[in-house]
Amino acid sequence: MTLTSRGGNRMSYVLLIVLGFVMIYPLLWLFMSSFKTNQDIFGSSSLFAGSYVWDAYAKGWAGTGQYGFQDFFLNTFILVVPTVLFTILSSVAVSYGFARFRFPLQTLMFSLMMATLMLPDSTIMIPRYILFSKLGWLDSYWPFIVPAAFATSAFFIYMLIQFFRGLPRELDESAKMDGANSFVILTRILLPLCKPALFSVGIFQFIWTWNDFFNSIIYISSVKNFTVSLGLRMTLDASSVISWNQVLAMSVVSIVPCIVLFFVAQKYFVEGISTTGLKG
């Protein structure tokens, strides 16, 4: 290796370190500011403060009223976990049908499904709210869980269709020769090969549902059913004097599950993103 190439590599490492620090700086500031006073938070953008507050996490977790963040976290898991599981199951079933079978009006149905990707969510917000209201599902988690069970996310369906199409059809034919039916082929042969795509769907849906504020504030009205995102918003309305260190502390805690899930499933997630859509 020549001196020129070594110098180029060092410059690349320095550039990556600088860019990485710029990207991670907001998170570092968020964490460090959870130990600051209001004056330090708004008085300086420095990571360090003149004086530190050590009880922001304890007070923030306890909340300001009858319900604390332990309740909001429990509510969020009750909402997110079934939504993620039903999204994976329903998306797998629909995408398997589109990728491996031929049936009447298949092209039309696939086109209609793909058209929903172009449909702004705001155009169906009012009809959807009226429907859920007449079903008596408002102020509950059913508006999130039930649609997930019926494969309403065209993005995940298309993503899995592309992954199924990348798997050789010879696998299906070999299994059929051994007497396996379509369900056995899906569960015992194809799904084990689809782990990267399934993890990608699960991570995306978990993070999107966990961080969802807009739909939560529309369908959930009582504090006892609030999710983490609504709980964070409620802390801003609790009093005229806002303890921003507590708000930031709970913001740090709220992103921990998403970060942990991503790093635990990072291997499958990266593999799923890199291989989805490739034809085998």
TrEMBL record:
UniProt keywords, alphabetically: Cell membrane, Membrane, Transmembrane, Transmembrane helix, Transport
Topological category with respect to the lipid bilayer: Multi-pass membrane protein
Subcellular locations according to the entry: Cell membrane
Transmembrane segments: 12-32, 72-96, 108-130, 142-164, 185-207, 244-265
Keyword Lyase found: no
Similarity-based family: Belongs to the binding-protein-dependent transport system permease family.
Protein name from the UniProt record: Carbohydrate ABC transporter permease
